[in-house]
Please model this.
Amino acid sequence: MKQITDKIYYVGVNDRNKNLFEGLWPLPAGVSYNAYLIDDEKTCLVDTVEADFFLPFLENLREVLGDRPLDYVVVNHMEPDHSGSLALIKQYYPGVQIIGNKKTFDMMRGFYRLEDGLMEVKNGDTLSLGTLTLSFVLTPMVHWPETMMTLCGTTLFSGDAFGCFGALNGAWIDEQMNCDDFWAEMERYYSNIVGKYGTPVQMALKKLAGVKLDYICATHGPVWHQYIERVVALYDRLSRYEAEPGLVICYGTMYGNTERAAEVIARAAAEAGVKNIVMHNVSKSHHSYIIRDVFRYRGLIVGAPTYNTGLYHEMNVLLDELSQKDIKGRLMGWFGSYSWASKAVAEIARWNNEKLHFEAVGTPVEIRQALTPETFAQCEALGHEMAQRLLS
Model:
């Protein structure tokens, strides 16, 4: 049995086969779908797992429950990777009561046609399980309208909040494992899944302020115990869009000319004192990693060729994705190249003026066909100016 506290057990599963989370985000190390069982005078399951994993999930549940009934299941979040087994749970435990808020049940009817045995809760409501009491904290838009968290003493069942990509390799509590690989994956998870909703995250953190927490049980990734302060601080920083004084240089290139300009800019920024510089070929790096780094660092320089009298496709897609994240407080410079029709520089400027609203830094560089001594110097100037702003 995977015990967390005297009466709380981990009953989740690992998915090591899925390549893309939500069909979008790479999973090089898999992902876990975490669920938890509270074994008190009344038994209570907190969240379920994706339906494809129901049988191993049921085995985990029965390892703790045995032949006893399941009294409650709390639904903190309705995304199907967490609610997908609800209808099956209802078949195996027909007397179970499903706990959620009004918006939870609106979605539940649509997803699973479940109508019976529903217990609606509001923010601050409580439920006694015997020696333990649940308290419900509604956290709408972290990152769906119905999301909530459940407190059980000093244990917080946080839903997707504080979660990260990566399957669990034997251990389930942070102090039992090496967590080094999870930190970057938590940033990538936050920036791509939750990143747009910084204000709701801040509101949720305020609701939890002053609450003593010994365990945070998220629906993905480790159970946090040893690193609770670090995890909460990371969410606080990311949701306020705070960034380190580093630089992301992201470029598209067809025949290498735009890439050569990116290298000149990077070298100039490094010579001017910027130590944290990451470079991404927008056609090679998955955009989720680029978005993570834009959340991490304050400076961004993008460049791409003109393509079919418009902006290079992958750069167009990336700028669209960034515009949907509502990122604040970033510095941005840009450059572009063309063979016979100049468009890239103007299109990047339009994206920033109309959608991104980042602070423009430096003079955009426009390269016709290949670098010349003049455009080489302009790329150096762009790197120097960005460095000056980042370090000032």
In short: DSSP finds twelve helices and 22 strands in the chain. The CA atoms of residues 42 and 129 lie 5 Å apart. The mean pLDDT is 97.
